[in-house]
Structures are given as C-alpha cells and as structure tokens.
Write a structure and sequence with these properties.
This protein is of the alpha+beta class and 294 residues long. The protein has one domain. The protein contains four helices and 14 strands. It has a five-stranded antiparallel beta sheet. A four-stranded antiparallel beta sheet has the order 8-9-10-11, with no helix packed on it. Strands 5-6-7 form a three-stranded antiparallel beta sheet.
C-alpha cells in the first residue's frame, strides 16, 4: 500500500473510529501543565469534560495510556450488588448552568466524569441525571464458566461468590478472588451497555489496611486506602471494563494466552496486550471528553 494512501477511506466508520480513539489517547497523554489549554478546547457549554482526577486499576504494560476507573460497590439489604453513582446537581460553570454528579468517597472526589472516555460520555447511563438502574447485572456472553447458568440481566448477589477465597479457573493463581462479567446503568430501552468487571477478593482488607498480601500493600498511599474502604463492600470491587487504549473489553483471568504476556493474574486486553492490575489501585489524571450538549 502506498505510504500516502488512506487505509480507512473518509466514508468508512472505521476511519472515524480510529481518529476518535487516537485523539482520545493523545488527550490522555497531556500532563497537568497543558491541562488548562486542552480543557479550553474540549469543554463545551453543558457538556463538562476537562482535567479529571480519578482512581483506577493500574495499567502495568502495553500501549494503554492509563488505568480503568474503579466503580464503587455497595451491597443492598437483600444481598444484591449495586454500583454507586453520585447524585446529580446543577451548578454554574463559566457562566453556564451544567448538571454534574460528584460526591466525596473516602476523601477523594468521585465524579461521573471518571467515565467520560471511549465514547461512554455519550451513553445514556453515563449522564449525571439519567434515571438508571445501578444494580450490577450479569452480562451476556458467559465470560466465566460459573456464570453459564445465570441469565443475562440477572442482578449479581453475594451468595454467587461464596467460594471466592478458593476460586480458580486454571489461569494464574487460585484464591485471589472470584470475578464476574457485568453491565451497569444499561437497562433503559436502546441504551448502550456499560461493561463492568466485578471481583470479590480476600485481598481487599489487606489493601485497605496496608498489609502484605499478593502485593505489599503497605506501599499504597493512605488516600487510596481510604477510598477503597469507602468504595468497596463485603470484599467486592469493580471497574469500568473499557480498555483506555482502543476501547476494547478486556478480561480478568479469561484467556490462557494472557500468561504469555505476564497478565495471568491481571486484566488482559487481547487486542493489543495491555495489562491492568486490580491489586494496584492508583490515582491518575486524564482529560475527560465533554458530554454531548442537549
């Protein structure tokens, strides 16, 4: 193919997709020093966006520019798992009234802008004032054998994870926790799916208390540990399962081939071999893309 030939002609959706995700990755690489300038370019009236501090499971290898954002979890009185989404309020930003959703979570500001990347900012469930179902529901596709008997859309419950301290599927080490594929805030008719991965792990108390476990959690900053204490319940954690590189849906202990790339105990994205570590939460900054204006 000639060097000057366009691999994806202008009329194809693939070209628009590549341009969009490459642009997103470029924005994500901007440091704090340039954040104000980029924010000026990307923020629009009513759309939010701009520099965003967030807590993520760390990206440890591959081309992904940053980690995937953690979704706080709580257990209802009936034992169902629910992803916490902050309450929406209306504020004036730059002379324009905008709807925002944020709350304090263990001393860290948890905001709906955490999920404004990979086009998720356009999803109905990601809108601050969406009337969305926050239950974590089983995803389609049976990502794990144990989920084969659970209908897609069924709320995940605590009793489904009773063997979490011993669970294993032959990939990586056993006993690090039991995972599930889920969807979140995606039940409205025609709504796009927000994919979430859930993990019940015996490592969480060690992470929160700064103990030695699968990792030396004494190296975790106190702010991260306080956040985890507030954002997890009954040893459940979750994250938005959208790779920050090209927006694929990766998997924790889903592919045997992940061992070839050092990802057997992590979240492995088979598209371009990015790896994320759920046992290494970090606080990072990225440039959130604006929500569409009304």
């Amino acid at each position: 193919m000639p060097l000057d030939e366009d691999k994806y002609p202008g009329e194809t959706g693939r070209r628009r997709f590549v341009k969009g995700v490459v642009g997103s990755a470029a924005l994500a690489s901007v440091g704090t020093g340039g954040a104000a300038a980029v924010n000026t370019a990307t923020s629009v009236g009513g759309g939010g966006g701009g520099p965003t501090q967030y807590v993520a499971i760390e990206n440890t290898d591959g081309p992904a520019p940053r980690g995937m954002p953690i979704v706080p979890v709580e257990v209802t009185s009936s034992g169902e798992l629910r992803g916490v989404f902050p309450e929406a309020t209306t504020e004036e930003v730059g002379g324009v009234e905008v709807v925002v959703a944020e709350t304090d979570m263990g001393g860290i500001t948890y905001s709906s802008t955490w999920f404004q990347y990979c086009g998720v900012e356009q999803y109905e469930g990601a809108q601050p004032d969406a009337d969305a179902d926050n239950l974590l529901r089983a995803s389609a596709g049976e990502p794990y054998a144990w989920q084969a008997d659970i209908d897609a859309g069924t709320p995940l419950t605590v009793d489904m994870f009773e063997n979490y301290e011993e669970w294993g599927n032959g990939i990586g080490e056993d006993g690090l926790g039991k995972p599930a594929g889920a969807r979140w805030r995606s039940e409205a008719e025609g709504a796009k799916t927000m994919p979430v991965q859930v993990l019940r792990t015996p490592e969480l108390p060690k992470m929160i208390n700064g103990e030695q476990g699968f990792r030396d959690y004494g190296t975790l900053p106190q702010g991260i540990r306080s956040f985890l204490d507030a954002a997890t319940d009954q040893k459940f954690m979750a994250w938005l399962n959208k790779c920050t590189h090209f927006c694929c849906v990766p998997g924790y202990k889903q592919l045997e081939g992940s061992a070839n790339f050092g990802g057997s105990n992590g979240v492995y994205c088979q598209c371009h071999q990015s790896i994320y570590d759920p046992f290494s939460p970090v606080q990072k900054q990225f440039i959130a893309r604006p929500r569409p204006t009304d």
